[in-house]
Amino acid sequence: xxxxxxxxxxxxxxxxxxxxxxxxxxxxxxxxxxxxxxxxxxxxxxxxxxxxxxxxxxxxxxxxxxxxxxxxxxxxxxxxxxxxxxxxxxxxxxxxxxxxxxxxxxxxxxxxxxxxxxxxxxxxxxxxxxxxxxxxxxxxxxxxxxxxxxxxxxxxxxxxxxxxxxxxxxxxxxxxxxxxxxxxxxxxxxxxxxxxxxxxxxxxxxxxxxxxxxxxxxxxxxxxxxxxxxxxxxxxxxxxxxxxxxxxxxxxxxxxxxxxxxxxxxxxxxxxxxxxxxxxxxxxxxxxxxxxxxxxxxxxxxxxxxxxxxxxxxxxxxxx
Length: 320
Fold this sequence. Notes:
Structural class: alpha+beta
Oligomer: single chain
């Protein structure tokens, strides 16, 4: 058996490779004091240990990983601490189902893999699945184990033990594992794409993006989706927030704009009537108006726009 090590910024990286769909990685982290060990190797397979460097670790997370990395492995020696396996995504997988399968939280999987949009999970992608619940965290100026423990409601001693740190502030930009920590419900909603509920039930009459203008026929960019429905149907706020503005314009007709968490905002246009005023707090059960055909419209429908930090985005990526 051969074992090689390549040090990179105080981290020894050793890759343990399993078969076909599962790559098992073992990383002994000298700087932070936590280690990673393989598990979940199919029955009948005899693991073998191979030495690789940081570049190979990056390849293992790429659907185009070198097939030569796949093979039989010898079982790694028993150890204690934090471990992870690397799992290759197959058709039908979701982040939450994968997390459940391995008995960990969705928070753990998304932070270990830097996932910002779970709906973009692609077949063949390699995911690191940790064996402990918690999140990977990049430290900020002045962070200490005690401060992080208080912020996340977890054990400072466990942070110190798993990361090999003391009482002093951690260097800014360090990657830490925070055992038992959870992402905020808002962060998980954003990652899963389940931020907004449908303001009405209906049918899509025009999608987000470039289209032929229904009146002039000219190519123009449609900044939201049009949801066809019957005139007078109640329109609900798509997410909790505060009404930023209401009014009338030649294009939008009667409209309501709502400001939400983390830079998000929504626009509801062509309303038959408006039932809220600026400054009012709303929830998803709040009726903000009714479907109409006011302004630049050729029939009863709701024009629905989602923006983040002032830039429109496809509502279909965040509607549940």
